[in-house]
Amino acid sequence: MADGEPSGAYREFKALVEAADRKFARARDLPLYGGGDHHSRKAFKAYTRLWRLQQDRRRDLVAAGLRRWEIGEVASRIGQLYYARYLRTAEPRSLVGAYVFYEAIYSRGYFAAPAPANASASAAAGGGAKHQGLLIRYKELRFIARFLVVAMLMRRAEAVDHLVARLRSLVQESKSAYPKTNFKEWKQVLQELDRFLKADGAYKGSRSLRYDNLFDSYASNLASIARFHSKRVLKLKEAVLTSYHRNEVKFTELTLDTFRMLQSLEWEPTGSYQIAVKELTENGTMSDQSGPSGLIDIHLSTEISDGNLPSNPQRAIIYHPTVSHLIAVLATICEELSQDSILLIYISASGLADQNAYHKYASSSSSRLRPASAFSINKPNSHTGSDDHVWLGPRGNGGPNNLYPEDLIPFTRYPLFLVIDSENSHAFKAIHNAEKGEPAALLLSPRIASAMPGVESGNGGQFTYFLTAPMQAFCQLAGITSDIDSYEEILSTSVGLNIVWGQILPDPFLRRLILRFIFCRAVLFYFHPEENGEHLPTCLPGLPESVSPNAKAIKTPVLLLAENLVVSNRFHFGNRT
């Protein structure tokens, strides 16, 4: 080896890092909808070259002073690119790719602070080393937060528990090691995380929110659904998901409501796919942990495929948008819709500028309820003069933050499936029969959420919970801790089904949302002793009477479920006809 060759390799490595980081910054700054994926591909290409260099010449690089955290930073960027691609394309293999890299980084401790060789060396290092140690500590904190999001989406409960404990201990260690540094923001992150995991019991032990062919698809009904194929059939290929509430449950920029809806619009991987994920994780964990780099094969996740499943619909997750931003996103996506596509728009937002009202709506605390009754009869907006919009804003009053039904009507030139979870959802009935070209399908939440007296029903939208996890929502409503199989047959064989529903019924994701709406409406109907429209969700156009709450075939499963769970005394089956 010639003199200076190691330093030459290190200079090449640093130059490639700078070039890759510039491409990464451009890819990161682009919105995760519409075009722009070529920037992601360029960044991947740059990091592929960088990764191969450190694999091929890592002895030279180590001799020249390459540090473990530098390799961890490169691997972390690759994981972030995979996660961004997952958000952009909804490809499960990209989520797996992010998990593989993050798990390998974590298991090898790339960001772990190295212990000084001796006390004199530590003293000689001085303030510069302490400052660099602090920077690396921040990198580790941010890395674990990113890893947690991926682990929650992958439903890796053990990994989530382990990472939460590590994040908590790391914050405590950081406060002790750097007493002059304020870690208040990370204490807030821990509080948000604890609140999120407490509200989202679905990440542990319960059934996945994703669409599972084994449980959500009924082959016997395919012939009945096929009768709509002779007419126009629309497929869900694009969705816009947004939630905006003050003090809502969230972790990083993922709110609880969008987290649930995001998963419900994905296919549950098959068994063979899950085995492949496990093998990849083990390979990533066990490969060459002795060196500073290890061997993480950048092509691992590109080999994952599941030919048994169709593609997931692409989703644009918009975190706390302004009204103008949301409209701009919708306009961009609508321009790219194909003729056989339908756009799902999901909005969870308060109807009041004083968004403390949302927490009363979402959690349905017993403080809203009269002492003598389990059910509120007060209208939620009796103290305000406007209930014709939802509110997209942090505080204050003013029209720019109000989203009106009229704002969405221009997009009815395209097929729309609209889901509104808000106490002002009824305002969006105005879209029905006012469409500009395509009749829209609407699922609208009740104006008032429901709860047993004294039962805390968690956080997040109750309507959203029913649409994404109906059994958990039922148990929460009934105040118990922890299906609707026949509904699909009834709906698919109904004679009077409006063509708006008929042309979207063949899509499995939208069909499941409709079925869960039917279940939600029936449960809430029998939960109240007297009919009160403000407690019930609404759909437009109307569904057939065969799936109304009064229909025997709809009532019976709810009754049997309540009896089997020994909570039938909390419903009113006898006096409702």
TrEMBL record:
<protein>
    <recommendedName>
        <fullName>Protein SCAI</fullName>
    </recommendedName>
</protein>
<dbReference type="Pfam" id="PF12070">
    <property type="entry name" value="SCAI"/>
</dbReference>
<dbReference type="GO" id="GO:0006351">
    <property type="term" value="P:DNA-templated transcription"/>
</dbReference>
<dbReference type="GO" id="GO:0003714">
    <property type="term" value="F:transcription corepressor activity"/>
</dbReference>
<dbReference type="InterPro" id="IPR022709">
    <property type="entry name" value="SCAI"/>
</dbReference>
